[in-house]
Amino acid sequence: MRDQLELLWELQKIDLALQEIKGERERYPKEMRRLDEKQGIEKDKIKKEKEKVELLEKERRQKEGHLSLEQEKIKRAEGRMFEVKTNKEYQALLKEIETIKEANSREEEVILRVMDEIDALKKDLAKREKEISATVSKIEAEKNVIEAGVSQSEVLWKKQMERREVLSKQLDSNLFRLYNTLKEKRQGVGMVAARQETCQGCYVNIPPQMYNEIQRNNTLVRCPNCNRVLYWEGNEKKK
Q1: What pTM was estimated for this model as a whole?
Q2: Tens of pLDDT along 176-223?
Q3: What whole-number distance in Å separates Cα of residue 223 and Cα of residue 185?
Q4: Which pLDDT band holds residue 143 (cuts at 50, 70, 90)?
Q5: Domain 17-171 fold
Q6: Which of 4, 46, 75, 190 could form a disulfide with 182 if both were Cys (CB 3.0 to 4.6 A apart)?
Q7: DSSP string across 172-231
């Protein structure tokens, strides 16, 4: 029975390792999606800031185009000054030119403000692009680690499964069946260690006589509370 218990204990360790690998394998896609979303958010921020700069550039060009047209109006009005015949017409033309010039002056101030805003945004954008580039590089590195972890987990999974297959054939069929039944009912744990007169599965105290029997590892002993198979690893002095 000692040999069988030792085999079963090794099998339980393998099953716990497989359970952990499975959890990691389920976590990897979620983590990858999280990183992809984070990467997308960072890139979207830059895209929106670039779009804002482009809109301001478009506004600047439109205002400059309008200003250019208004300046042409001034030139044409000034050209007509030599054609007017009365003082009233001359004063009216001067008023028209002055009105256009005042409007152009205001437009030039607006253009300057837009240009200042564009310059400030471009400087901030350059800084943000460096920051986001560093963040994206970090995300890519994390994704590479995850991908390597996926590959490694596949190797470990195969290795553990091969060893499990060997052990399952060496175990007594009834013991193996009992273990699988307990494992299904107890969240993947059908066999646990007994330490300091306590079941490490449910942490209920084990009667002294039963604990002495467990320490010999010669008999199948199950926890009186959770029914798991108990195993003594030899990590404390026998009584």
Answers
A1: 0.60
A2: 999 999 999 999 999 999 999 999 999 999 999 999 999 999 999 999
A3: 14
A4: confident
A5: Helix Hairpins (1.10.287)
A6: 190
A7: -HHHHHHHHHHHHHTTT--EEEEETTEETTT-PBPPHHHHHHHHHT-S--B-TTT-PEEE
